[in-house]
Amino acid sequence: MSLREKKKARREAPERVLKFKLDTCSKCRDVVEGLRLYDEARKNGVELNQHHYNVLLYLCSQNGARLASAMEDPEMAFILVKQMKSFGILPKLRS
């Protein structure tokens, strides 16, 4: 595999695509789309890393009231932290 093909494979990896999409949601403060992407990634078996979870937690914290009313689930951030731990990703203090 050439260097160009390796770079393309890394760029198109599901984890990388998810990172880009979640970062876009964070910039637009689109918590509903961020959570939809999270659910889709979990269904498709995409391996989530600490950055993915940090973006989701940031979205939840910045849009807490709207999230609670839209999802009728104010405990979403706590659930994400528990899932991080279950996957062996230790939440940092900032998380």
UniProtKB/TrEMBL annotation:
GO terms of molecular function: ribonuclease P activity
GO BP annotation list: tRNA 5'-leader removal
Keyword terms, alphabetized: Repeat
Residue ranges of every copy of the PROP1-like PPR domain listed in the record: 6-63, 65-95
Highest taxon, organism lineage: Eukaryota
InterPro entries reported for this sequence: PPR_rpt, PROP1-like_PPR_dom, TPR-like_helical_dom_sf
Protein name (Swiss-Prot/TrEMBL): PROP1-like PPR domain-containing protein
Organism in which the protein naturally occurs: Salix viminalis (Common osier)
Species lineage: Eukaryota, Viridiplantae, Streptophyta, Embryophyta, Tracheophyta
